[in-house]
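In this supplementary section we document a worked example of the pipeline. Step one takes a protein sequence of length 376 as its only input; no multiple sequence alignment statistics are reported here. Step two produces a three-dimensional model, which step three serialises into structure tokens for compact storage. The input and output of this example are shown verbatim.
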Amino acid sequence: MRKVALDLGARKISYCEIEGDRVIERTTVTAIDSLRPLLGPDRPPAKVAIEACREAWHVHDLLTSWNNEVVLVDTTRSKQLGIGQHGRKTDRIDAEVLVRALARGLIPAAHVLSPHRRQLRRQLGIRRALVETRTNLVTTMRGLAREQGTPIASCECSNFVGTSRKTVTGPLLTAFEPLLKTLELIEQQLVSVERELGALCNLEPVIAQLCTTPGVGAIVAAAFVSVVDDAKRFHTAHQVQSYIGLVPSEDSSGGRRRIGAITKKGNSYLRALLVQGAWAMLRSASKDDPLRCWAEAVTKRRGKRIGVVALARRLVGVLWALWRDGTVYEPASLGRKVARGLRKHSQDIAFRAESLERASRKSSCKVLFQEVCLPN
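The serialised model returned by step three reads:
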């Protein structure tokens, strides 16, 4: 099969094809449709490598419909392939590096989202843009009102327009009118977007299962499903936590092990939502909920911020397990698992303490023996 790589840029696409170890075709086009003479259905099928990016799914679907085999490259590992080596990074070079890695079988393939999960993520992205725009407008107006000595009372964002019109008067209200009208329009659009999002969530029974977890609402569950896509592609909870970027960074080279802050690799929006869900769980979950009790114990030892991030990481494992097993959140069952984990942890600590104590005694005996055997 032919070996091809595309470097997908914002304004142009670089094409590189090799045969054996020799480049046999290079070209640059401005649109993917322009590659039909090279990769179209009338040409012999090719194995095509592309880096994961905004347009990658569209390009993947189009090339696949043209009977090609598409390999999506995980961009977090692209440096391992040699991209950017020696300070040389251009679209032309990147395409050649990709196709040579493809020929050698070194491509770290990325997961391709299913069409329905893409639609779910797209709708979540639209809602996120509207919510962030609304938040920016509200923050701006609150600041301007404080400048004039008329602070606007705290309220829900959906009630902000009415509260502002009751609080602000005179020239300031006139100045606010364009922003207030924009807010009204955003609220209307949010209602429509959330209705469509709700319809998409109703087609995903797993979202309702995940929502049985304290602190997890429809938005958090939908974002989790849209990012993970398929629970079975992960073998352990740690893999999912690492995929989302909630595991501690580690540097164990040089014989020393250094544990740092979380890696923050993966989808930043989902990671932020999970942290918000962890805060909500700490505030609203039952006081005897095992997850909350565990998080409060971590918080007492390490502080609230670390405890919340740890709870978000633990929440990922719980959501993945619920999805994998097709079940709902059961505090009693989780409590038993947490108890087993704590018991094993305490046994490990006791074993390490006993081992250190034995080693210390041996060391003391050795020093004493050396002192006794020293010549006068």
